[in-house]
Amino acid sequence: AQTVTQSQPEMSVQEAETVTLSCTYDTSENNYYLFWYKQPPSRQMILVIRQEAYKQQNATENRFSVNFQKAAKSFSLKISDSQLGDTAMYFCAFIQGAQKLVFGQGTRLTINP
Amino acid sequence: GAGVSQTPSNKVTEKGKYVELRCDPISGHTALYWYRQSLGQGPEFLIYFQGTGAADDSGLPNDRFFAVRPEGSVSTLKIQRTERGDSAVYLCASSTGLADTQYFGPGTRLTVL
What we know:
Oligomer: heterodimer
Helix content of chain A: under 10%
Number of helices of chain B: 0
Distance between the termini of chain A: 41 Å
Order of helices and strands of chain B: EEEEEEEEEEE
Structural class of chain A: mainly beta
Distance between the termini of chain B: 33 Å
Largest interface: A-B, 24 and 27 residues
Structural class of chain B: mainly beta
Shape of chain A: globular
Shape of chain B: globular
Largest sheet of chain B: 7 strands, mixed
């Protein structure tokens, strides 16, 4: 069974700092997709970034970038120049074959002014 | 509509009652998913529709849970004889198909007293 592990239940940084959220996953497949979703208190799950496993290049979206290490099954999210609006729960998720997303437990990120 | 919508936003019911939760996906999205998110946890898969048919219902916890999507658009998640353990946020997502990004609605918070 596929599993996703986020080892940091909570993180806190100052505004404008850079923060990295960790995620590891377990799969025996070669072709799959990885995602980071953000969930603010409003409950809406918002896509932050997506990575296709067959692509060696790390995905980037403005201040958000990933470090995808396929051999190590690691998929960390880096947020640069953090903003107060980045405060939220962040979930790492994996999808392969069966279409269902498998989520990690989440990391609660707080950006302090 | 612009995004996935879910109604009601909140539902409070008594143990043993029947509830229906509605999801209206993004127009043109053929795939629709239901997830359940317990407090402090990541979402867990319940069921996935491709068109009108349930392609994967392996996440439904028991036969009290049932979902339909009769016309391939709106879906209804039905829970019979609710139990206190059913209390959670029920999230709906839609996508254009295979391995595509899933876009989430704001969820329905179900509270069973």
